[in-house]
């Protein structure tokens, strides 16, 4: 039997079961949004892919396992004063960076280590991750780096989730979005450094464009929650690249601003306001005093 058919069958059973099970759990694996949405169901297609594509399964399994720790226990604090989720997710990103660096070189390693950041932000909105992953994969086709078998297995494993995602009925969660984005990266590029850069660029731009133009919830967030008047597409791009708790933590230690900065017309067009603005994540709320 073709591994894609195995992936489809195993993922269908696991994804649908997990989505139903998480609805019964009163905790972080069930978000009270869109009428109630199970999150973390991406652990199933990620592990199915990792089991069927051994050559690229190690980084996918690492991100899936440690990312699921973030999904299930993320808001709890360690004795170091860092949230369990931040610690687990950061460790996973470093391990994947090292693994891909060793096997595919520094460029692909750095891209794979960073890719979970935009993947996590894009996954906050229904259908955006599916769209971004598809666009990024297609963008790599002219390079001739696509691994057809790995790509077929990935999309077969994702198909049951996509069916739920199209109706806004599930979220991949940290374990799913980070691992499946890296799976897509390796399947579309076979570790090629130029392909890795193309994939990251296409994924980021597609995710930002979808959230800003197609279903403009990000525009509303930028205006209402962050106070950025008349946001631009580049504000959306920087939101995808620097949003969330991880981005806010980095900004708090570097050039971050707690209030919307004044800037000129070109800086506004290039998204300077969102680039430096600390957002409304768990870290951002504490830093902004919210």
Q: In terms of topology, how is this protein built?
A:
Elements: H1 3-23, E1 30-31, E2 37-38, H2 43-52, H3 54-73, H4 84-104, H5 106-114, H6 116-122, H7 128-139, H8 148-165, H9 173-189, H10 193-214, H11 217-224, H12 233-242, H13 244-253, H14 265-269, H15 272-276, H16 282-288
Antiparallel strand pairs: 1-2
Helix pairs in contact: 1-2, 1-8, 2-3, 2-8, 2-9, 3-4, 3-9, 4-5, 5-10, 6-9, 6-12, 7-9, 7-10, 8-9, 9-10, 10-12, 13-16
Give an overview in words.
With 290 residues, this protein is mainly alpha-helical. Helix content is 70%, strand content 1%. It is built from 16 helices and 2 strands. The protein has a two-stranded antiparallel ribbon with strand order 1-2. A hairpin with a 5-residue loop joins strand 1 (30-31) and strand 2. Helix 2 packs parallel to helix 9 (173-189) and helix 9 packs across helix 10 (193-214). The chain is globular and about 60 Å long. The model has no long low-confidence stretch (mean pLDDT 89).
Task: Let me know the largest β-sheet.
Answer: 2 strands, antiparallel
The overall pLDDT average reads: 89
Number of helices: 16
Structural class: mainly alpha
In N-to-C order, the SSE pattern is HEEHHHHHHHHHHHHHHH
Given as residue ranges, the uncertain stretches (5+ residues, pLDDT < 50) are none
| Strand composition percent | under 5%
Give helix % range.
55-70%
């Amino acid at each position: 039997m073709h591994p894609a058919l195995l992936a489809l069958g195993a993922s269908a059973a696991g994804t649908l079961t997990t989505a139903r099970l998480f609805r019964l759990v009163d905790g972080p694996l069930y978000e009270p949004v869109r009428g109630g949405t199970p999150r973390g169901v991406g652990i199933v297609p990620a592990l199915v892919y990792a089991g069927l594509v051994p050559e690229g399964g190690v980084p996918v399994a690492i991100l899936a396992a440690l990312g699921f720790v973030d999904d299930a226990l993320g808001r709890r604090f360690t004795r170091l004063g860092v949230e369990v989720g931040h610690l687990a997710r950061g460790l996973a990103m470093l391990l994947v960076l090292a693994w891909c660096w060793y096997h595919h070189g520094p460029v692909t390693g750095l891209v794979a280590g960073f890719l979970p950041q935009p993947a996590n932000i894009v996954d906050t909105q229904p259908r955006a991750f599916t769209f971004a992953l598809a666009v990024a994969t297609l963008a790599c086709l002219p390079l001739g780096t696509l691994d057809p078998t790995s790509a077929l297995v990935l999309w077969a494993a994702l198909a049951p989730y996509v069916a739920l995602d199209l109706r806004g009925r599930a979220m991949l969660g940290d374990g799913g979005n980070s691992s499946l984005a890296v799976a897509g990266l390796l399947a579309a590029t076979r570790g090629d450094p130029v392909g890795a850069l193309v994939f990251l660029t296409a994924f980021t731009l597609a995710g930002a464009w979808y959230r800003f133009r197609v279903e403009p919830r990000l525009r509303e967030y930028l205006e209402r929650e962050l106070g950025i008047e008349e946001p631009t597409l580049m504000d959306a791009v920087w939101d995808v690249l620097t949003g969330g708790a991880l981005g806010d933590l980095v900004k708090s230690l570097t050039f971050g601003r707690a209030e919307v900065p004044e800037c000129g017309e070109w800086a506004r067009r290039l998204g300077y306001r969102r680039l430096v603005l600390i957002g409304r994540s768990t870290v951002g709320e504490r830093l902004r005093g919210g």
